[in-house]
């Protein structure tokens, strides 16, 4: 199925060839175009006909039609093939080829998508590992700084009042050792651990 756009450029040749009848001129042009289509299609495979070479095919058909129509005093301005009719076997072959090509492209896109997804997951896992490692490192640094600051405070307290510091540390030790419910602690009465407890008893 096609259409052709034409014009008269030589009136004498046109009247000699067609008698001035537009219908006859159209019939002559249709024969020229059909012959040109068959000739060009015969040189190519079906995939080539329906591929990107179609524009080049149309240009050659137009050039051939223009050359053949000159003897009728006609200039062929444009030729367009609107639809290509194939036999059922050829049509099935074309559609199968198109389906296979689309399936191949879809498979490639799915594979590419899966690869990209795997790369994203791997990148996210790496970032998670780095973030956790950095957080642990920062926590350890802060813990170390806190321990160092606490040790410095204890040292200053000891230097300022060693006796009070010793008393404070003993109270902490009593709390940890004697404040556990049913725990039993057996010590000699002269043990230095009990010094502050003995000193706190009122004199008789």
Helix-strand layout with pairing:
Layout: E1 2-8, H1 11-18, H2 22-42, H3 46-49, H4 54-69, E2 74-81, H5 88-160, H6 162-178, H7 195-199
Antiparallel strand pairs: 1-2
Helix pairs in contact: 2-4, 5-6
CATH level-two architecture of the largest domain: 2-Layer Sandwich
Q: Indicate how many domains the architecture comprises.
A: 3
The CATH topology annotation of the largest domain reads as: Tetrahydropterin Synthase, Chain A
Give unreliable regions as ranges. Answer: none
| Oligomeric state of this protein | single chain
Major pleated sheet: 2 strands, antiparallel
Helix content: over 70%
- H-E string: EHHHHEHHH
N→C terminal distance: 130 Å
How is this structure best summarized?
This protein is mainly alpha-helical and 204 residues long.
Could you explain the architecture of this structure?
The chain is rod-shaped, with a radius of gyration of 50 Å. The chain contains 7 helices and 2 strands. It folds into 3 domains: 2-85, Tetrahydropterin Synthase, Chain A (2-Layer Sandwich), CATH 3.30.479.30; 86-160; 162-204, no CATH class. The longest helix has 73 residues, at 88-160. A two-stranded antiparallel sheet has the order 1-2. It has 204 residues and is mainly α.
